[in-house]
Write a structure and sequence with these properties.
- There is one protein chain.
- The protein has 458 residues and is an alpha+beta fold.
- It has 3 domains: 149 residues, Beta-Lactamase, CATH 3.30.450; 39 residues, no CATH class; 155 residues, Histidine kinase-like ATPase, C-terminal domain (Heat Shock Protein 90, 2-Layer Sandwich).
- It contains 9 helices and 12 strands.
- The strands form 3 sheets. A 5-stranded antiparallel β-sheet has the order 2-1-5-4-3, with helices on both faces. Strands 7-9-10-12-11 form a 5-stranded mixed β-sheet. A two-stranded antiparallel ribbon has the order 6-8.
- A hairpin with a 2-residue loop joins strand 3 and strand 4.
- Helix 1 packs antiparallel against helix 4 and helix 7 crosses helix 8.
- The longest helix has 53 residues.
Amino acid sequence: MTIRTRLAVQFVVLASLTLGVAFAVVYLRAADFRQDEFLSRLHDRGVNAAKLLIQVEQVDDKLLRIMEGKSPVRLPEEEITIFDEANVELLHLGGNAGLMAIEPAMLDSVRANGRVKRMVEEREMLAFEFEDEARRYVVVASGRDIYGRRKLRNQARVMVATFLTGLLLMFLVGRVYARRALSPLQRLVVDLQGIGASDLGKRIKMGAGSDEIAQLAASFNDLLERLQTAFHVQKNFIGNASHEMRTPLTAISGQLEVLLLKERTGEEYRAVVRSVVEDMQALNRLSDRLLLMAQAETASAAMTFAPVRMDEVVWAARSEAMRTDPANRVDVIIDEVEEADDITVKGNEALLRSVVVNLLENACKYSSDNRALVSLNGSGTMVRLVVEDHGVGIAPEDHERIFENFYRARNTGGAKGHGIGLSLVKRVVDLHDGGIEVSSSLGSGTTFTVHLRKAETA
């Protein structure tokens, strides 16, 4: 069943319940009114007969029968019976005596309660007390409300016909309403079916509305934007990574092929092997950084973050940077802190260490004396990490682009690199809700400043 049909059916069910309850209340109220009105007429007929028989001396039971027999207001199948205090029948009007049995117990109940009403099939009876000069009589009046019941049945037929016709109209109107209400969704489905992996640049038309459908379309457009960005990054990443990995592999392959062209001396073999080992180490570092970048790109809120002391991260990164190249020199300045919490952040230790390692290796690589200075301090709610060098510097027009994947500034010269380090640094810092700034100019060195939020203490 389609949503349109289901909405129409639900609309009909709810409307029919409401209409059915309303019609039932109207019918029951009309039935009560008919009964009350007929009993009131029985009461008036009984009182009138009792007054004529008891209070008017000139009227006896024979004359009263003649008068009532020709009365134009006589009710259909009317019977009126009057009893005295000893339950002796004084008068019975009506040609069909005994249509409703009158027991002494009922007469006693009337004297005790004031009035009694009964119904046998469609015949209704009202028994009540009539007092005259301290004497108590019981009047029993009965009859059939032929005209009232006919009106009630006609009203019921009209209400049933109206109810069924209303159900049909409500179903048709409900389908039209559901079609109009769901038409934006239908257009949304058509637009989505026209978007494939090759044309993620398309967007869904949201129109001028601000309802839930427009919000859904906006959410789909945001999703398409993220998918397009992810596909673009993935495509560039695969292309650039393949190119970067091909370079050391080609160098290794070329050196080995040249080595095998003829017999070499032992020293020549050792030189080639050392060169191949260096290329293998570079390839290994490249693969490690690619894995870290993939980890940072796919990281989410579900990633495990824990309190990390940044001084320990700095010392571990210093050891790794100096182990990678023994010529590297790293000076560390850590401001005095009263508590370890002043330099503790909440994050992933491996990714944070990769940030510091990459900044230190870059600083040493591009500094003429292979020396870098790193300082750490905590103030307010932030921990500040500063890495400085006295190298070639970065041109102002490259300040923004150095954080792009595989981008290298034009003045890097012959320094080895793949353009991955700083893009990885930026991604990890963003992942930790931090910030990174660069201050540099050509020939005067470079300073990177990283701001990380302190871990909240319990």
